[in-house]
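Usage

Read records sequentially. Each one opens with the input sequence:
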Amino acid sequence: MRTARSISTARRVAHGALLSLAVLAAAGNAAAAAPASLTQADLQELSIVASADVTVGGPVSATVTLSDLDPVTETGLLTFSLYGPNDPDCSGDPAFVTVPPVPTAGEADYPSGPFVPQTAGTYLWVASYTGDLSGETVTTTCDPDDPDTVVTVLRAEPTLSTVASGNTPLGGTVVDTATISGGFEPTGTITFRLYGPGDTVCEAAPLTTSTVDLVADVDSYDSAGFVPTVVGDYRWRADYSGDVNNTPAGTACDDPAENFRILTAPDLDTDASADVDLGGAVSDTATLSGSADATGAITFLLFGPDDDECTADPVFTSAPVTVDGDGTYASGAFTPTAAGAYHWVASYSGDAANAGVTTACDDPDETVVVRGAPVTPTLVTDASHDTYVGKRIFDRATLSGGAAPTGTITFDLYGPDDATCARTPVATFAVPVNGNGDYVSGSFRPHTPGTYQWVASYSGDDGNTAVATSCGDPAEQVVVRKKEPYGPGPRP
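and closes with the structure output:
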């Protein structure tokens, strides 16, 4: 690679572009009458020096030196042409031409101005000088062996940095990500190869190979995903193909950023303590199984009350419980200070051979209810309107003021004319309760006229006391009348 040009190579060309030797031989008087430049030596110097080699994307230029010319009388125009890439006889169209030509005035150095080639390769400079006096043109030679006319545009040398997806539990998907930088508008492909387990020199056949095409303005690329089936150490390698403007690049086998481990995936089963009254202690246990001689620790977190997504800060965090292989580990006790539903979350840290695992918030086996003092809800009922024999009757109950009530509401219908509700109900309906709200009994079709009355009873639950309406409540009474016959009375 040429990085500097300390000495220019002079190219001597015939002075025919500047002087006509034939005119000088024909008439002395004519020569005496001509401008002073015609009396100079019949050979002039035209030299060209190309700039140093560059990496694609950098500018190139050339400088022409004109010697032994009068700055007043010997003026002209200088045209620079750059051929390439890889056009050793300058037969193709030039990649660059100075437009307009560079005006000259006697001897001096004249620069071409910069040009930025878009393709790597070897380029050749050619300069043409046209004198204003003679109108004739002299041109330097296209010579691939002349170092002063040759400039090499080198391919960029991109780098490829990669990051593997990291340690992964057995059964998980692994990927590799490669980022290309320092190139010149790179095209081509990146090929990802995965080796292992235990192939520290990447000499066996890869477990998987995937190739991605590079696209404009994108630097990072992902391999296809792969699911290893064996625990152990694995290694990615990534290779960039290179192109006309960029050299190939790749990562080494055993690159630390490309190494990862497929870990044993142990199970973590948990079981919270039973529901308690406010003031009682709660706890959790976790059973680790299927590990590879697990070490590390299990940490227990308790969320609540009534934090069903475990988004608030935990009300209790255990000290890390040291793990020594498969087994059952306990959180220790905690006494909540407020009633409500609490949720345990247990998290195993993992170690060099085992993946970490965490239970889910709101896991049924991880919920414990702390019962507060029961509340007494309100039960208000409203029976259907009075009607006739054979028509349907029903009751409606509104439960309010309960603490997330559950259980059932039982509707009993007494009658006809059972004023004290002492007899067996003629109909009974049980309706499940899920919170405060309105609940409707089933319907009953009475066939005997009289007064019927409903009694509604809420069963209660751990947080709510049982309540019931009273027999004889006017809002619970329905009068069933005998339907009168239609038409005229009986004949005499």
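Summary fields computed downstream for this record:
- Residues 111 and 418 are 121 Å apart (CA to CA).
- The radius of gyration is 49 Å.
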